């Protein structure tokens, strides 16, 4: 995929989330008809997706790339999401009942973004399975906490029919090794047709908005991550603070990077990463990868 770069936000849409409205009008029948995973497909992949704030819903290229990526795979039986925006220990799961309201954890955007629905089916069976997989670790169900924007924004583009059960799992901390281990515990779900999705941002710098020259640092970090992934070097990814160029600029906090470790941990082959999206937006890498 050709890499494009933009240091400014996407071009203004006709109205807030108009690009998302256009996506729904264009692809809903295709989304509803997507073939569902069967055991003959083999394990579902694990994914790391770079998600944006609500302006993603105004970016037709980003939305289209996410939808096409999801269409390249069978529709999962269910989805487990680990998002940059929920850290809670011990590990917790979001409300699994159908119709739990979304957790609109953002501000400063047009009010319409907080009215957009993404009502996924009942995920109680998946919640029980997760509780069993996590063994003796206490698992708290936050019954009133719906999906946060790190979960629902990419999924609105990938599975716009909202017909796949989804459970969000909290990050029990921001230590990369902890997220790698969490991903390894989720690995068996892939053989059951469950998609394991880490949602963050390959680089997450606000400083680059004010100092566009810092894009050199975010680009260097992105290139380093691609190389580490290609080698399956989970140890380097865990030690990214020391080993990655531009880490202090690309990730002043760990929250948007460590979900990648969850996806790596859930993979059978850490060196299998293939970039589905490779694009710079507002000076940051929106790279999203698939692992098997």
Give unreliable regions as ranges.
Answer: 1-13
DSSP helix count?
11
Any idea what the CATH architecture is?
Answer: 3-Layer(aba) Sandwich
Beta-strand residue fraction: 15-25%
Q: What is the fourth-level CATH superfamily?
A: LigB-like
- The side-by-side strand order for the widest beta sheet comes to 5-2-6-1-10-7
Number of domains: 1
H and E string: HEHEEHEHEHEHHHHHHEEEE
The overall strand count is 10
Quaternary state, please? Answer: single chain
Write the CATH fold name.
Protocatechuate 4,5-dioxygenase, Chain B
Tell me, rounded to a whole number, the average pLDDT: 94
CA distance, first residue to last residue: 20 Å
Q: State the major sheet.
A: 6 strands, mixed
Q: Can you tell me the CATH class? A: Alpha Beta
Keywords: Dioxygenase, Metal-binding, Oxidoreductase, Zinc
Protein name: Extradiol ring-cleavage dioxygenase class III protein subunit B
Cofactor: Zn(2+)
Organism: Nocardiopsis dassonvillei (strain ATCC 23218 / DSM 43111 / CIP 107115 / JCM 7437 / KCTC 9190 / NBRC 14626 / NCTC 10488 / NRRL B-5397 / IMRU 509) (Actinomadura dassonvillei)
Spell out the key features of this protein.
six-stranded mixed β-sheet; 292 residues; disordered N terminus; two-stranded parallel sheet; alpha/beta; 11 helices; Protocatechuate 4,5-dioxygenase, Chain B
Structure, described:
By secondary structure, the chain is an alpha/beta fold. It has a single domain (18-26, 37-291), classed as LigB-like (Protocatechuate 4,5-dioxygenase, Chain B), CATH 3.40.830. It has helices at residues 18-32, 60-71, 124-133, 149-158, 176-190, 207-210, 215-230, 234-238, 240-243, 247-250, 258-266, and strands at 46-50, 78-87, 92-94, 140-142, 166-171, 194-200, 274-277, 280-281, 284-285, 288-291. The strands form three sheets. Strands 5-2-6-1-10-7 form a six-stranded mixed beta sheet, with helices on both faces. The protein has a two-stranded parallel sheet with strand order 3-4. Strand 8 and strand 9 (284-285) form a beta hairpin. Helix 1 packs parallel to helix 2, helix 2 packs across helix 4 and helix 5 packs parallel to helix 11. The protein is globular and about 45 Å long. The two termini are 20 Å apart. Keywords: Dioxygenase, Metal-binding, Oxidoreductase, Zinc. Belongs to the DODA-type extradiol aromatic ring-opening dioxygenase family. It holds the Pfam family LigB. Its cofactor is Zn(2+). GO terms for molecular function: ferrous iron binding; oxidoreductase activity, acting on single donors with incorporation of molecular oxygen, incorporation of two atoms of oxygen; zinc ion binding.
């Amino acid at each position: 995929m050709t890499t494009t770069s933009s240091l400014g936000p996407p071009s203004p849409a006709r109205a807030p989330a108009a690009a998302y409205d256009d996506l729904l009008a264009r692809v809903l029948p295709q989304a509803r008809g997507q073939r569902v995973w069967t055991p003959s497909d083999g394990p579902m992949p694990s994914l790391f997706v770079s998600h944006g704030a609500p302006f993603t819903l105004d970016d037709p290229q980003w939305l289209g790339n996410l939808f096409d990526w999801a269409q390249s795979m069978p529709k999962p039986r269910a989805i487990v999401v680990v998002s940059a925006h929920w850290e809670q220990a011990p590990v917790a799961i979001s409300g699994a009942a159908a119709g739990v309201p979304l957790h609109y954890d953002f501000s400063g955007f047009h009010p319409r973004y907080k009215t957009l629905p993404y009502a996924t089916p009942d995920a109680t069976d998946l919640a029980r399975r997760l509780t069993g997989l996590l063994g003796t670790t206490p698992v708290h169900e936050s019954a009133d906490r719906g999906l946060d924007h790190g979960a629902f924004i990419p999924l609105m583009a990938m599975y716009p029919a909202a017909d796949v059960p989804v459970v969000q799992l909290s990050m029990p901390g921001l230590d990369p090794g902890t997220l790698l281990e969490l991903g390894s515990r989720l690995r068996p779900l892939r053989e059951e047709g469950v998609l394991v999705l880490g949602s963050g941002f390959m680089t997450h710098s606000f400083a680059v908005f004010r100092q566009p020259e810092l894009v050199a640092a975010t680009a260097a970090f992105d290139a380093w991550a691609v190389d580490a992934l290609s080698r399956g070097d989970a140890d380097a990814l865990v030690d990214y603070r020391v080993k990655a160029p531009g880490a202090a600029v690309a990730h002043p906090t760990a929250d948007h990077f460590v979900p990648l470790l969850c996806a790596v941990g859930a993979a059978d082959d850490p060196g299998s990463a293939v970039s589905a999206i490779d694009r710079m937006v507002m000076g940051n890498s929106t790279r999203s990868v698939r692992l098997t």
